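Our collaborator T.R. sent over the components below with a one-line note: 'Predict the complex.' Nothing else. No constraints on interfaces, no templates requested, no preferences about which chain binds where. So this is a plain run: every listed entity goes in together, and whatever single assembly comes back becomes the starting point for the next discussion.
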Amino acid sequence: MDLKEKLVSSFLAFENKGGLDLDSNVHTLRLKAIQNFENEGFPSKKDEEWKYTSLKPLLKHDFSLFPSGEKSVGFKNIEEYLINEIESYKLIFIDGVFSSFLSTTTHDECDVCVLSSALTRPKYKMIVDNYFNTIAKGNNSLAELNTAFAVEGAFINIPKNTIVPKPIQIINFSTGSEKEVMLQPRNLVVVGENSHVQIIERHQNLSKNTTLTNSVTEIFVHKRAIIDYYKIQNDTDDSSLIDSTFVSQKQQSVASVSTFSFGGKIIRNNLEFYQEGEHINSNLNGISILSDKQHVDNHTLVNHKFPNCESHELYKGIYADKSVGVFNGKVIVQQAAQKTNAFQQNNSILIDDGATINAKPQLEIFADDVKCSHGCTIGQLDESALFYMQSRGIPKKEAKALLLYAFANDVVEKIKIPQLKTRITKLIAKNLGVDLGFEL
Amino acid sequence: MLQVKNLHASINDKEILKGINLEIKAGEVHAIMGPNGSGKSTLSAVIAGKEEYEVTEGSVILNGEDLSDFAPEERAHKGVFLSFQYPVEIPGVTVTNFIKTAINETRKGRGLEELPAKEMLKLIREKADLLEIDRKFLSRSLNEGFSGGEKKRNEIFQMAMLEPKLAILDETDSGLDIDALKVVANGVNKLKNKDNAVLVITHYQRLLEYIVPDFVHVLHNGKIVKSGGKELALELEEKGYDWLK
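Returned assembly:
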């Protein structure tokens, strides 16, 4: 039985497992979603959007879909994956199951809790009905698949006029309790008018077993609200991630999503921004640093629908060995979206002959009074700069790293949480194999 | 200190240096002059160890040690410093962080401990003051958006920090107005002592009014065609290079 069949045939058992309200709207959404997935199946390379990324190597695994999740994990096991230098709310999931022991939630000024309770409690029914699966719906078969099995993940509801005092960390761990496991976390984030929140998301495999995560996050940003969302993707060589993140923004809101892809087998990021008002600012940043046979595919979409909005997109990639990078950045400026400023930049450095980058900027502009630009560069390390540094006593390896640091720096500079910036800088240094002894 | 013996070097199979002989003793200042394309910059790059150049014959010896097999950074650790004609811009790395890295890597290369942060800071301030460098300058990205004068002053600042045995100044005067030239030359003169040596590569005599050489050599077509005292520079200024060919 292939993975698709296995998933489809497990659906009934999943829904009947208990704990799920079969009379709810969510049940209807799940039913529809599994039908859509059954019709479409997994995307193949024939699909234009998947031309450079094949899921085939992943689909041959016999994934366990519902890990028992009873494996006990202590704080010591996960400490290094958290940003502990700052106070934060924490939503920790172990093999897809929420760990109240490891987490720090709140219902005081805002709700930082779990989707499973939001889906079942009457208190949250209106929010779920208003938002859940409204942007993910009908988008892609993998998001449909996630919806069909959506039961757990982060539920973050920030009422209006609330500055969330500390960042929220969402971390999904897999423990290797099963040889091959598939996880499908589902996050829902609603940021009310004039509110502000910072979120850090990470997926981490604690074992050497195989993990495939198919994650979906829906983010709703209301008038004048601000959200900074950071994704740390530094997983093991046997972990793959398909991440679909949808952002819907209302007028004058500012949403920034930064993606740091340093590790994993296959990573596919679908990141989509929909602007639903005027004077919106959307920021998409990314750094990929890959080696061996790692594969990272960043697919982004910014849909400008209203006038006077901006989008800024900056993706940097450093590719070593036989690693493969994909950047597909689509910007749509609809006819009504006059006075749009849309900027996109994608810079890649290929360190080794075997490394590949497939870059595809895609601008579809239907308005005539707009400023749109895209810049795409693919290069190698500057030999004269290396010689310059060597002549000052800096060995070639360190000189290379320093240049690459400098290359990635303008994305790092955009991180607004200092402790996270330090962590990312360290991760970059580690991935480049050096210790430079300072922060940029 | 430095002995260059019958040095032949080529790039892409094209011979640029065709048998250079040069000896520089501690405490001396030498100048190499010559027309464009004579091989001046190649000589400095070959001494510093640039890998694109292939040394086909001869050797470069520093304090009795043949440098042939050493990488550029190892030569730097042994005391060679090359001030670039066109210093490279490195956005995202501040002057301070760059020099810290250079100092500590050099110390590591010499088997020394890293310099404690406090001492490093003191040293940086001391040398910046010596060269009349504004502190704000130190937190800017290396050479990014620097004027010609700032770039060259920054080169001399790094030289002051690294305290080389042999400093090669490749066309340090190019792109400098007279005030900037004086500041740079003053810096070099302040750093000059009986234990180190300076090799000035220049096109014009101008710089040599401020950094006064003990010896002047004329390079032409990959060979030193004439050597003399500082008066040779003046003669060249007057007559040009044609009479030497």
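Summary for T.R.: The mean pLDDT of chain A is 93.
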